[in-house]
Specification:
- This protein is an alpha/beta fold and about 425 residues long.
- The protein has two domains: about 250 residues, 3-Layer(aba) Sandwich (Aspartate Aminotransferase, domain 2); about 140 residues, Aspartate Aminotransferase, domain 1 (Alpha-Beta Complex), CATH 3.90.1150.10.
- About 40% of the residues lie in helices and about 15% in strands.
- The strands form five sheets. The chain has a seven-stranded mixed beta sheet, with helices on both faces. The protein has a three-stranded antiparallel beta sheet with strand order 13-16-15, with helices on one face.
- α3 crosses α9 and α13 packs antiparallel against α14.
- The radius of gyration is 23 Å and the shape is globular.
- Bound molecules: pyridoxal-5'-phosphate.
């Protein structure tokens, strides 16, 4: 007799006399999922590489230890490369992406300044609240659900509202929509508007050229496409953003959030004379350093292509199950996919997929709650993670009573995974890669 009454032979057989209510197949599957460790596929925090995890096991360093100084200065240089913003000064602060939003926007606006917010999902709402708390005058241009913004609509808004700052959420994690930063930023720049980009769900996974696109201030957080654990906010401050802060006439109301406190500290790390303003999160900095070292081993254009390839495989798998992405093909992100549930299926699907060993996320957009799920595929994510996730989604759908053609999503994804960019062979894969 085998473990828990399962006969250890070639097929799945159970001795009904031994199988008690407590030892149902579901329990056994759940136990198996626990043993294997749940695969983390939410749109952040994301799974991290074992090397990054190991870096966190190092004894805590003094913040003035030459090793830590070196880690920080190398990380700052690498971040400038990831953001492709050679003219900017990166800042790393202990905190999450929301801190970066707060720092980014608050340092650029004074009471009465105008802020134009481009809305493609719920994260624009945070910009609205931050702008309101800084007594800014706000205008919001909203994209239809799942779509990008019309450029003429934005041009008209800039010309009539004449904002000081325009915010762009590069990839909104609630809809899976990616906005095209380049034309939007160019339009704002030409009209002397400061461009602030929330790259929390994009930078490190999507194409991004801070300087060439005319972005004045951009930010992300450690737990997304950078491949580090949560806890660090990362910003790049360009010359125009810095000048806006320095030329401020009213007193800046924040203290920890004041970039004029942080910029000299970061510049000091890079020039070999680090200063102090708040104890840095030394262990997270050590882990971020390793994550960025790993990241630097993969040239950015290759990294961006890898994300596009992996995302295409995932989307092909989802489509093969008859499911639709919320984002339209021309606006869909490569870092995550927001998928509409089949008719009549709610959040129990997310729970069922979890039981199958993969952690995916519920919807957070009010119009999608209970009707869709979100899967992150960024950072340390490859074919193994995509196939495991699609397999778990198939079994999860089956568990919640949906008819599933087992293997359909895996087969569709395999077509693409077997043809990485550069050696795309099948027409189908080529078509998907182009979308
Ligand atoms: C696009 C975007 N902006 C901002 C945030 C806020 O970041 P955090 O949760 O790290 O505070 C998130 C979080 O998911 C995000 O996806």
């Amino acid at each position: 007799m085998g473990f828990y009454g399962i006969v250890p032979n070639k097929t799945w057989e159970v001795n009904p006399e031994v199988l008690t209510e407590r030892e149902r197949i579901e329990d056994i599957q759940a136990a198996a999922a626990r043993i294997q460790r749940t695969l983390l596929m939410i749109p952040g925090p994301t799974a991290i590489a074992p090397e990054v995890l190991a870096a966190g096991a190092r004894p805590v360093l003094s913040h003035s230890d030459p090793l830590l100084r070196n880690f920080v200065s190398e990380s700052l240089a690498r971040l400038r490369n990831v953001f492709d913003a050679p003219s900017s000064q990166p800042i790393i602060m202990a905190g999450s992406g929301t801190l970066a939003m707060d720092v980014g926007l608050a340092n650029l606006v004074e009471p009465g300044d105008r802020v134009l917010i481009l809305e493609s999902g719920v994260f624009a709402g945070r910009f609205k609240q931050i702008a309101a708390r800084n007594s800014a005058e706000i205008r919001v241009e909203t994209a239809p659900l799942g779509r990008g913004l019309d450029l003429d609509q934005v041009r008209r808004a800039i010309e009539s509202f004449r904002p000081k700052v325009m915010t762009i959420t590069h990839v909104d994690t609630s809809t899976g929509v990616r906005l095209e930063v380049e034309p939007l930023a160019r339009m704002a720049r030409e009209r002397d508007v400061l461009v602030l980009v929330d790259g929390v769900c994009s930078i490190g996974g999507e194409e991004f050229h801070g300087d060439a696109w005319g972005v004045d201030l951009a930010f992300t957080a450690s737990q997304k496409a950078l491949g580090a654990p949560p806890g660090l906010a990362v910003l790049t401050v360009g010359p125009r953003a810095r000048a806006a802060r320095e030329n401020r006439t009213s007193e800046f109301p924040g203290y920890f959030t004041d970039i004029t406190m942080w910029l000299p500290v970061m510049e000091g790390y890079e020039s070999g004379t680090p200063g102090y303003f708040g104890t840095p999160a030394v262990t997270l900095l050590t882990m971020l350093h390793t994550a960025l070292e790993e990241l630097a081993a993969e040239p950015m254009p290759i990294r961006v292509l890898r994300h596009a390839w992996i995302a295409s495989a995932f989307k092909a798998g989802i489509a093969a199950l008859g499911l639709e992405s919320v984002a339209a093909p021309e606006s869909i992100a490569n870092t995550l996919t927001v998928v509409r549930n089949p008719e009549g299926v709610g959040d129990e699907l997310v729970d069922a997929v979890h039981v199958e060993g993969v952690s995916i996320a519920r919807a957070i957009h009010p119009e999608l709650r209970g009707r869709s799920f979100r899967v992150g595929h960024m950072g340390v994510c490859g074919p193994a993670e995509i196939l495991t996730t699609l397999g778990a989604i198939e079994r999860g759908l089956y568990r919640v009573g949906h008819r599933v053609d087992f293997g359909a999503s895996l087969s569709a994804a395999q077509q693409i995974l077997a043809n990485p960019p550069g050696q795309v062979r099948s027409d189908a894969a080529e078509r998907v890669m182009r979308t």
